[in-house]
Amino acid sequence: MEAFVSSTFSIAATEIGDKTQLLALLLASRFSQKNAVVAGIFMATLLNHILSTVLGIWLAQTLSPQTVKWIVGLSFIVMGLWLLLPGKINALNERWLKYGAFGATAILFFIAEIGDKTQVATIVMAVKYQEMFWVITGSVLGLLLANVPIVYFGEALIKRIPAQILRMGASAAFCILGVLTLLGGGIALQ
């Protein structure tokens, strides 16, 4: 259950201010079918995070525990620093919009997640916990927790809570977890 909770909150924090949040806002403003946009986000995230989790578990089973400790610790720190960089996204690529709210969202979100912070964070969670079901479930839920409100209430939320403040808090938390993991006092590695 620790894998689920950690994955959920890590991915939700990582997603704050990310380019895929902006993509969710753009798609929600482009399509009136908000439920189809959310379904597309879910499908793209599920596929992307299944692949990420499989890769992370394979890495954990292939590498020594000491190497895994360093990878996880340094990855948390890198992730924390990466969160300080605001995500950017180009205007929607018109060729995908012809597939409708669900199709365009699934395609564009899947592409946007490749090499994204949340994909890397999902790989790190999989390396750390090696619990496929809980990491996938938590990471998908975390991404949805960060993006679904944007789809339905994006413009109002952005005006009330600056993304930069949320990003800085999440950045500090990831850096602290990384240092604690490297010192051996952080979350125990399997």
TrEMBL record:
InterPro entries: GDT1-like. Keywords: Membrane, Transmembrane, Transmembrane helix. The keyword Transmembrane applies. Its main location: membrane. It is found in: Membrane. It is a multi-pass membrane protein. Belongs to the GDT1 family. This is GDT1 family protein. It comes from Neisseria dumasiana.
